[in-house]
Structures are given as C-alpha cells and as structure tokens.
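Table 4 source record.
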Amino acid sequence: MSIEIKVPALGESVSEASIAKLHKKVGDQVKADELILELETDKVTLEVNALVEGVINEIRVKEGDNVRVGDIVALMTQEKNSTSHAKTPENLTTKTNQSTISSPVNQTTNNNNASQFLSPAPKKLIAENNLDPKNISGTGKDQRITKGDVINALANPQNTQNNSINSQANSKPVERVKMSKLRQKIAERLKESQNTAAILTTFNEADMSAIMAIRSEYKEIFEKKHQVKLGFMSFFVKACVIALKEIPAVNAEIDGNDIIYKNFYDLGVAVGSPQGLVVPVLRDADRLNLAQIEKNISELGTKARDGKLTIADLTGASFTISNGGVYGSLMSTPIINPPQSAILGMHKIQERPMVVNGEIKIRPMMYLALSYDHRIIDGKEAVTFLVRIKELLEDPRRLVLDI
C-alpha cells in the first residue's frame, strides 16, 4: 500500500515552506512517527514524520526546494509485518522510481529532450545568464529543467560551460548558499520597517549596581526556591511593563489611519537561534513575577535553540526587548519589529568612571537605546519612557512597590 507524505498545514497566513533537511533517502526503513524531513517557513522549522512503519519508496524533493501546503514530498510503502526489516526489491521499487532509474545514455537523451520544453521561469533565467540548457541536469518530471535546477547551476558555475561572467568570478574562491526562509523573512521585515516607519533612537544609561547587588545576595536562595537562575531580563521586563502602562503610545501600533492602543503586555524577547534571530513572545508579562518571567524566558530560549518554536510562540507581541549585550555590543540602534512601534535595546554592562555626589566612582553602567516610530510616538514620550526605565532599574525597590 503506497502512502503519500504531504506538506502539513504551516500556520495562519503561511502557505509556503522550503526543504531544510532530508533525514531519509529512498530505500530507508522507517518507524511510525520517525523524522523524514524538516521544513522551514519564514517563522519556524517544522518536522514531517512517517505516518506508519514502512519503507521510503520515493522522495520528490531535495534540500532547498520550495513546497506548498498539500504537496506530496515522499511516498512510502507500509510494512505488512512490522517486525520484518528486510529490504527487498519488491518493497523498494515503485513504478515512479523505476522510471527514474535508467542508463546514462537514456538520461542524457531525456535531458536533451527536456531542454527543448522549458517553462517560462527557467527559460528566462537561462536566457538572462547565457546558459546552455544541455549542460543543466533536470530534476523535474521527465527530467525537465526546473527553475531550481537553473539556480543550482548558477550557484555552481563550474558545472556550466557558457556562463562567461561566472567563469571569471570562478577564479576566486566563493561559496554560494541559498538564503533560508527565515533569513529571507528577517530581511524582508527589517527592510519593511525602515521603508515604512519614521524610526528615531534615543539613548540613556543605567547604573546596574543595585540590581547586581540584589542578584549577588539572593541568587542562590532564588535558584533553590524557583529552580531557575535570576537574570537581568526579568528586571527589564517588569520595568518595561510599568513604563508601557504610563506611556501607552509606546505599546500601540498604527493601522491605516487608526491608532490601536493595546491594553495587554505581551513582550517579544529577541533571542538567537541556529536559523537566525527570532522573537518569541512572553505572554501577559504584567501578571508574572520575577521567577515566572525567568522560567518562561528560559523555556522559550531552549525551544528556539532546538527549533521547537511554534507559530503561536512568535506572533502577537506588542513591544520587544533586544539584548545585544550578550554578544558584547556596547551600543546599537535596534530596528523596530513591525507592526510594533518601539523596541528597547539592552547592551553590555561595563565599568566606567562616573561622578556620584561630586566624587568619581567606578560603576557598572549599561547603555539603553529606544528605537521608536515618530509617526505615533513623540520625542517627549520616548525620552520619558526611557528615563522611567532607568529610574526603575537603578532603584529596583520601585519595581516591587510599583512606584
């Protein structure tokens, strides 16, 4: 019995993905729910697993291919006897893969014939880049040349013979890697933010002495009681919630000619992942204590590193906090994550000489940056917001007393 493995639903408003990694090949024995391949959308990485125990008969995609919801990516045969793992020609061969196993002569002939029937997309690319279709291996139906085949040929110009421009560039060592869906979306959204919002950045600095003293005094007790380390981010989250309540424009967004003021506090916390920067959302941050904030952030960070974030984890934030300080950044101008109207940038804590009550003292200082959309947030509101953050961080007792 032949079973189709299809691209599953990818989430709201997401219809396309790319093949991130193939974990199985034709002829492999798989168990039910065993990983076959990974899909990457512009938001998350998803796993596609075997529906039943059986043998992979055909894989219709390769790494880097774009696919849509419902596309058949593989075919497999269900094992009649689940205890048998023998791979015989009968259960590994299908009508489809028999047609693709042919002699080198037939492959060449088929490719030459296929090159005469080019669809508009690959035909245009071939013409624009002065390529000879006979030198391009087709992977489409009947070995016809697809757009992806042409892109691969351009990425490996040594495999083509008539690309004069690439042959010159080929004298220098280069590596061409297809941009991931996530990286494409990051680029698209950041450029959209710059093209749409009137972005300004205001700066301030905070003396982190008080928070560092609290962490030093209570970190062991805190971790023992709550099974999570006490970090800096929980203090920043609490400070941001208080400041957002006082300056509601920073928690708002523009929708056409309307301003939407949000009476909830779902904060995006930017974290690094193997696929790039992602911003999982800390829901209802105003209802969480320091321990709950630290636990939730830890869980989101683990999911990001393991590629387990869901669509729900990444959507709906009203404000974002980005911590470039973990990478050593001393100062930066963070870019707003649309449709939000502001983002707070944390930076490296560095000891500097500061004048305190007329005396020069060494203090652990952190530069703070607030990038904001000037279309909705005035300069006075932005500066007031950042000063409020500074006050709350320098005197953490205000966080507890909410003053």
